[in-house]
Fold NAD(P)H dehydrogenase (Quinone).
Amino acid sequence: MQGKILVVYYSLEGNTRLIAETISKEISSDILEIKPKKSIDPHSKMRYFIGGKQAITKEKPEILPYDINPEDYDVLFIGTPVWAWTFSPAIRSFFANTDLKGKKIALFSCNGGGNGKTFKNMKEQLEGNEFLGEIEFKDPLKNDTKENIERAKKWCNSICK
Ligand SMILES: Cc1cc2nc3c(=O)[nH]c(=O)nc-3n(C[C@H](O)[C@H](O)[C@H](O)COP(=O)(O)O)c2cc1C
């Protein structure tokens, strides 16, 4: 695979971070973590309510500035946790902040059991790009962590070959 590669992700509880870091290390790419200005407490029981509402109402929370330009890359791996059967609000903010067109894009997600419309909804936001693949993981920090790391490595290598 020719070109510059970037892994972009948001993670509240670390699952998507684990996969994002695994992929980035495996293919030696740059990595960008999207961070909301006002973060939700990952230990609070309220997180489902607060985050779920944000996702359902398609909020775009303010995110911290970052100093790399995703538009400079040819291939982007974009990762999100599933919130209320779709992608996370921080990733919605990321999409609003960038104009990705003519890129090669691979999508990954972490969920607690159901991916819902996550990839379909992300692709709608990413019209005008080519999709190379998609993969979901079920809470990889809790379930079969080693196997999931291997699965992530295999997957990103198959995309980048
Ligand atoms: C606000 C919120 C909403 C969630 N909604 C879903 C859902 O609709 N379906 C699902 O399978 N898991 C859901 N989950 C579980 C997460 O997707 C799952 O635990 C994921 O691995 C978390 O990724 P992270 O550790 O990168 O934040 C939700 C979690 C939160 C905090």
